[in-house]
Inverse folding.
């Protein structure tokens, strides 16, 4: 199964950078070859955030597979990310918090 993920951030704040790093680690460790990631800075592209009805950042949106799902925060709680996005990790452990 292929995942299409979109991460909305606001500028290059430490909180945004942590969310980006956590997302890359999740994709590298658990979704190898199964995800496409797009990072959107709402300061640079507010219309995209409006289209996806983003009210807070960082927000991770799972566009595919449908239905669309969203997680708000820096993605540091991996278990909540997997549950919230209904992602089945490749590795059996959900460590790395």
């Amino acid at each position: 199964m292929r995942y299409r993920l979109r991460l909305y951030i606001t500028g290059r704040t430490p909180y945004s950078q942590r969310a980006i790093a956590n997302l890359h680690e999740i994709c590298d460790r658990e979704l190898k070859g199964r995800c496409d990631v797009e990072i959107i800075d709402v300061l640079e592209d507010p219309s995209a955030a409006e289209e996806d009805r983003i009210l807070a950042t960082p927000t991770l949106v799972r566009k595919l597979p449908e239905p669309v799902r969203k997680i708000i925060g820096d993605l540091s709680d991996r278990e909540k990310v997997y549950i919230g996005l209904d992602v089945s990790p490749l590795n059996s452990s959900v460590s790395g918090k």
